[in-house]
Amino acid sequence: MFPLTVENKHVAQLLLTTGTCPRCIFRFCGVDFHAPYKLPCKELLNELQKFLETEKDELVSEVPNPPPKKIRLQELEDGIDGMDNLSQNGEGKTSIIEDGSIASKNSNLNVCNVCLGILQDFCEKEFIKKVCQKVEASGFEFTNLVLSISFPPQLSVREHAAWLLVKQEMGAFWILKLKILYQYEKDHVTTGVSCVLWKENHREKKQSLSLGRNDIVQLKEAYKWITHPLFSEELGVPIDGKSLFEVSVVFAHPETVEDCHFLRVICPDCFKPAKNKKSVFTRMAVMKALNKIKEEDFCKQFPCPPNSPKAVCSVVEIECAHGAVFVAGRYNKYSRNLPQTPWIIDGERKLDSSVEELISDHLLTVFKAESFNFSSSGREDVDVRTLGNGRPFAIELVNPHRVHFTSQEIKELQQKINNSSNKIQVRDLQLVTREAIGHMKEGEEEKTKTYSALIWTNKAIQRKDIEFLEDIKDLKIDQKTPLRVLHRRPLAVRTRIIHSMETHYVDEHHFRLYLKTQAGTYIKEFVHGDFGRTKPNICSLMDVTADILELDVESVDVDWPPALDD
Question: Does this model's pTM top 0.85?
Answer without folding.
Answer: no
